[in-house]
Amino acid sequence: MFYTLVGGVLHHAIHLTDALLLMTAAKVENINTLVGSRILIFSAGKPADKMALRLQRSGAFVKALNGQERDVLPLIKRWHPVLLIITDWTVDMAPWLNELLSLPVCTHLSVLALGADDEAHAMSALDAGASAYLADTVTESVLRAQIGTLLKNGHHWENTEVRQDPYIWINPESSRIRLNGSEIRLSRRLFRFLHYLALHPDRTFTASEIANVLSDGQKFIQENSVAAQVHRLRKYMEAAGAGEWLETVHGFGYRLTLPQKISFDVKLS
């Protein structure tokens, strides 16, 4: 059974086809939302490795945490996921989730809870702040549709500041960037591009993945135009003595390699 709050009202579908109908429109629009999204899967019981692997194959960056509730917050602070998936939800987890979501670091965090197929479990999760609740017996198509729906409005990495003075500072609120202490001015598209790379240092992205970032998943960007965008960005970075940070990995794509002395807790594994 599928549960979610729509306009503050609990909606559920008894039959699988009903749930699919509720999400069909959103599913069509969410084809690209998994690509590049950070998803944290927390399980206090059976590890969710299979779910993590499926989401990774769809282009998401996934961390699967099998442990205690107290282990979740430190990882959120270091890694800044846009979506937290809680498996094996139980009613007694509600106070913990409510407290977690009250913290400033979780302001933009979406939460999907998976658990028993009954309204008591669903309401306990939704009342605690979960964005949606699914019975853990739903099919993968329903699960993926719900994840896509939550991610559609969840490009919250765009609000994440990158700062390691005096080498790099990217402030999304003021739309300002400093490299090696010098401010550079970029177009909105190039700002988004560099910001995304800075949140994923040392990770190589294909032209297709970069095209998706440049387009914000909304407009079509040809892959053969990516090289031109990289060239433009590198020129701006060179003015601040940081052009060599943006590397071309021949045959694979591009990556941002920051100076060795810079250490980021947000690096993806």
Protein architecture, described:
- This protein is of the alpha/beta class and 269 residues long.
- It folds into 2 domains: 2-156, Rossmann fold; 161-256, Orthogonal Bundle (Arc Repressor Mutant, subunit A), CATH 1.10.10.
- It has helices at residues 16-29, 49-57, 72-79, 94-101, 119-127, 140-152, 188-199, 207-215, 226-238; strands at residues 2-6, 9-13, 38-43, 61-66, 83-89, 110-115, 132-135, 162-164, 168-171, 176-179, 182-184, 246-249, 253-256.
- Mean pLDDT is 83; it is low at 13-31 and 263-269.
CATH topology of the largest domain: Rossmann fold
Number of strands: 13
What is the alpha-carbon Rg in Å? 20 Å
Q: Helical stretch count?
A: 9
| N to C succession of SSEs | EEHEHEHEHEHEHEEEEHHHEE
- Report helical residue fraction: 25-40%
- Main sheet: strand order: 2-1-7-6-5-3-4
- Say which CATH homologous superfamily of the largest domain is assigned: Response regulator
CATH architecture of the largest domain: 3-Layer(aba) Sandwich
